[in-house]
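Deadline looming. Please check this record:
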Amino acid sequence: MSSLKTDIERLDSTEKLGPEARATFLRFRDALTRGEIRAAETIDGRWNVNVWVKQGILLGFRLGELAQMGGGECLSFVDKDTFPARKFSVMDRVRVVPGGSSARVGAYVAPSVICMPPMFINVGAYVDEGTLIDSHALVGSCAQIGKRVHLSAAAQIGGVLEPVNASPVIIEDDVLVGGNCGVYEGTLVRSRAVLGAGVILTRSTPL
C-alpha cells in the first residue's frame, strides 16, 4: 500500500486533477471497502491516525460529481458519484434486515455484522466482526468500531473527517453503547466498557 499512499499524498496537494486521479481514487476506495486500509489502527497498543486515508476520502469528494442514483422511485437519491450506496451480497456474510438501512461504498463492514433498519454507515467507517448496529443508529465517517460491539437503538457515533490529523471516534471490542447515546469528537471508548442509555461523550467530557 506504500505506492497508493504516495499517490494519494501527491494528489492531495495537486490543484488540477485529471483522469489518473480518479483511477487512483477508485483503487483507494476499493481497498477501503475491503478493510485493507483504515483511517486509524493500533500500533504497539496505541491508536494512530492514518492521515493519508482521510486525504484519500476528501480527494473523492473533490473528484465527485452530483449524480442521480438508486434503483427506482422507492430508492432515489442525489449524491457524489464517487460515493454510491454499497450493495451487499450473501458473499459478504453481512446481515442487512430490510427497512431502509444504508452504507456508503468506502465503509468496511466485516462478516457477521448485523444491520437493523434503518441504520447508516458513512464512508471511512470500519465495523468489525460480530457487531450489531441497531435501528436508527449512525456510524459516522471514519469511526472505528471493534468486534462484538452492540450499538443500541438511536446510538450516534460521530464522524471525524476533518481536520485530517484528528482522531476519529473509536469504540473498542465488546463495548455496549446504550440507546440514544452519542459519542463524538474523537472520543476513545476502551474494551468492555458499558455506556448507559442517553450518555453523551465528547473530548471535553470530564470522567
In short: The first helix runs from residue 2 to 12. The helical segments are 2-12, 19-33, 51-63. The CA atoms of residues 25 and 60 lie 6 Å apart. The chain has two domains: 2-63, 84-196.
